[in-house]
Amino acid sequence: MKTSRKHLLALTLLTALSPLAPTAAFAQLHLEIAKAPDQAPKIAIVPFNNDNGLYPIVETDLNRSGRFTSSSKNLPANAAINQIQASDWQAAGIPYVVTGQIKQTADGFEVHYQLYDVQKQQYLLNELLNVPASRIRQAGHMVSDAIYQALTGIPGDFSGRIAYVLRNPATPAERYTLQIADTDGEQPKTVLSSRDPILSPAWTPDAKKIAYVSFETKRPAIYLQDLSTGTREVITSFKGLNGAPSFSPDGKSMLFTASMNGNPEIYQMDLSTRQVKRMTNDSGIDTEARYTPDGKAFIFTSDRGGSPQIYRYDFGNGSVKRLTFKGSFNARGTLSADGKKIALVHRPSGSNYKVAIQDINTGIVNILTPTSLDESPSFSPNGQMVVYATREGNRGLLSIMSTDGRFRMNLPSEQGEVREPAWAPK
Fold this sequence. Notes:
11% helix; 5-stranded antiparallel β-sheet; mainly beta; WD40; signal; Neuraminidase; Tol-Pal system protein TolB; Rossmann fold; 4 helices; cell division; periplasm
């Protein structure tokens, strides 16, 4: 294989297809529920007293959790803080009730909310939350996080963010836009606009910075951008390919793919000294490295065995182990926060590309998505959801699916195709 062809394949593996401090963007994603569970515990969301648009956010969040069915309409009774009559809700078969009230303060709003267990006839949550006026939507997501954790024992991820790339052919000067939005597609912010491709957004562990690959100098380079100030710096611009950045759990190192020595290999950079160490050395293409949660190893995609498959590299002894054996194509692997699952792009025999989840211990692969031409899976921090890019008809959009397959929602944009999602860490 010629080097130029290797470079092309490496870019395919990397992509599957004016720097700013994040500013308001109009290319909002639209939430569409594509699949909901047939049966799920009901949660009544009683409209909050003096509400400022918060309780509908909680209602939507809990509905898109895949675990519950929530509603603020056609309730059997009204209720306020500390005024729930269990019998009203028992007769309606509603096991949980959320009530709340909002008070304006000198600095913003005080949100008082409660979660009531009808069967036990006791409050599971009775909390006060003080937020500035500009963060009232965020407060709604925080209430949802608390309710989700109280009922499942798992931290909620509604208050998180997702980075993605929007491609709009109608605006050549800003054809590619790196954006960050809430997990429901609301409050999009533009990080970077460019006429040249933007690929592979990757969050730092503290979610304060984001790395990405830009072609603005007509060849790929990795940039690191501060999200609060908009300042950025070039991290790698070696000859040839520079791509697929990934940060270590402690934020001190970065893995990336480069072809500075002719073949696409994986390198590790010490971010304080900028010292670079080559990690792989094989005639095949090695790319898409991702650290394990404990930082002791990384997984990566390689075609060293003849087709793209996922391997594990151990920092302790330098050993490499193949992890995927089912299907003709396995790539874009990403690990859940507990390190027990890999979400990946999987091609079963005779089928298109789908997102699948492989159990690390057993090797069992479960195809997750009903869509095709899927790419770029990314776990939510709690491991209960996966966001990925896909196509439906002529639309390129994001889709979020629960890992049990019971719930799926789409996040399309009217302004173009949405690709390259990356869920922010907590």
